[in-house]
Specification:
With about 375 residues, the protein is an alpha/beta fold. It is about 45% helix and about 15% strand. Helix 11 crosses helix 13.
C-alpha cells in the first residue's frame, strides 16, 4: 500500500464520501475522565465495525471538559483495542512540541499499528495563551506559529531520516523509524505515517496545497471560512510524491438521536459549554437540564444561535440530509464527524444511527 492509498478513503453504503470520526474525549458533569476514555474505546470499535474510515483525536489543554491533552497516549490505547481503522491526530499542535518528540511518538504508534496511523498537524495552541506559554516555556507565542513551515520541514526530515550531510541534526534519528531498516541487520519497515495539515483559515490551506499534502478543515468551529479555505487549497495544490490531486476532509459537528427533542437538548448543553469556554470559564460539559435552566444573556443567545446553526442535529434522517447537503456544497472528499453530548452513550448511539442511515456495512 502506498501513501496515497492510505490517505484516500472509500465511501461506504450510500454515504456521499468516506465518513470518519474526530474525538475530543469530552467529559460531562458527574462523569470521570476514565469513563470518557472508555467511551472513546467503544466508539472506535463501533466505527471500525461499521466502516468509518479513520478515527482522530484532537489535542486540547487546560479544559476540564476535554480529556484529550495527550493524543499519542490515547491513540496507543485505541490501537490496542482496534485492528483495522486508521488512527491519528486531529491534530497535534506542532508549536507546542519539539519536532523530534513528535517523530518519536508517531514512529512508536506506527510500530504499534503498522500502516494505519495518520499524523495531523496544526499551528494553533489548542488552548489559551497562558497555557500555551506554560507548554512552550516561552511567552513569544507568535514565534511558534510563524515558524510552523520550518517546524514542519524539520519534523518531516526526522520522519524520513533524511537530513543532508553536514546538517546539525544529520546524526540524530527518530526511533522507531527508518534508521532501523538501514542499520546492520535491520528489518524495521521504513514506512512512516502520512502527514496532514489542519486549519481553520487560509494559512494551512495554502501551505498544504503548495506541499501537495492532504488538508483537513475545521468546519465545526469555522464554518464561514470553509469554502474559501477549500478553494484556496485546491488552487494552491501542486502534485507531490504523496498526492497527485487535492484531498480535503472537513470536520463537522453532527449529533443524531432517536428523538429530535433530545438532540436539541444535547446541542444546547454543548453550546453552553462553548459559551463558558469562550468567556474564560471552561468546565465539564453541563447536563441538558442545567442548560435548559440557564438564563442566557442576549449576547450569549446570539452566540448560541450562530454556533448551533452549524451543528447538524436531529433524527438520523435529518442528519443524513444535512451531511449530504454539506458535502455537495463543499465538495469535501471526506466528512469527519464529531458528536458532542453530555452522555457518552448518546455519542456512541449517534455514530451508530448515522451508520444505519447510510447503510454502512456491519463487520
Amino acid at each position: 500500500m502506498n501513501e496515497t492509498d492510505e490517505i484516500r478513503g472509500r465511501a461506504q453504503g450510500t454515504a456521499p464520501a468516506p465518513l470518519s470520526v474526530l474525538d475530543l474525549v469530552t467529559v460531562g458533569a458527574g462523569r470521570t475522565a476514565t469513563e470518557a476514555l472508555r467511551t472513546s474505546v467503544e466508539i472506535s470499535r463501533l466505527a471500525e465495525s461499521r466502516g468509518y474510515h479513520r478515527y482522530w483525536v484532537a489535542e486540547h489543554h487546560s479544559m476540564p471538559g476535554v480529556a484529550s491533552s495527550s493524543p499519542a497516549v490515547i491513540l496507543a490505547h485505541l490501537a490496542a483495542h482496534t485492528t483495522r481503522i486508521r488512527l491519528g491526530s486531529g491534530g497535534v499542535m506542532l508549536p507546542n512540541h519539539a519536532p523530534l518528540v513528535i517523530a518519536e511518538q508517531f514512529g512508536t504508534l506506527e510500530a504499534l499499528a503498522p500502516g494505519r496511523v495518520d499524523l495531523g498537524l496544526g499551528r494553533a495552541p489548542g488552548t489559551d495563551g497562558a497555557t500555551a506559554a506554560a507548554l512552550r516555556r516561552t511567552d513569544r507565542l507568535n514565534e511558534g506559529a510563524d515558524d510552523f513551515p520550518e517546524q514542519l520541514a524539520e519534523l518531516t526530515r526526522f520522519l524520513d531520516d533524511d537530513f543532508p550531510s553536514g546538517h546539525r541534526y544529520a546524526r540524530i534519528h527518530a526511533v522507531p523509524g527508518p534508521i532501523q531498516s538501514t542499520s546492520p541487520g535491520g528489518v524495521q519497515s521504513p514506512h512512516r505515517p502520512p502527514v496532514w495539515l489542519l486549519g481553520s483559515s487560509g494559512f494551512s490551506a495554502r501551505l498544504a496545497g503548495s506541499l501537495g499534502l492532504p488538508f483537513a478543515f475545521a468546519h465545526h468551529f469555522s464554518a464561514q471560512n470553509t469554502i474559501p479555505a477549500l478553494d484556496l487549497y485546491r488552487q494552491s495544490f501542486r502534485p507531490s510524491a504523496v498526492l497527485d490531486a487535492p484531498y480535503a476532509l472537513i470536520c463537522v459537528s453532527a449529533l443524531a438521536t432517536d428523538d429530535e427533542r433530545e438532540a436539541r437538548r444535547q446541542v444546547l448543553a454543548a453550546a453552553l459549554n462553548m459559551v463558558r469556554l469562550r468567556t474564560g470559564r471552561p468546565g465539564l460539559v453541563p447536563t441538558p437540564e442545567e442548560a435548559e435552566a440557564y438564563e442566557f444573556s442576549p449576547m450569549e443567545r446570539e452566540f448560541i444561535d450562530t454556533w448551533n446553526s452549524n451543528v447538524i442535529h436531529g433524527t438520523a434522517d435529518e442528519v443524513r440530509s444535512g451531511l449530504d447537503d454539506l458535502q455537495k456544497r463543499t465538495g469535501a472528499d471526506e466528512l469527519m464527524l464529531t458528536s458532542h453530548a453530555h452522555s457518552g452513550d448518546l455519542r456512541l448511539r449517534s455514530y451508530e444511527l448515522i451508520a444505519d442511515a447510510y447503510g454502512l456495512p456491519r463487520a
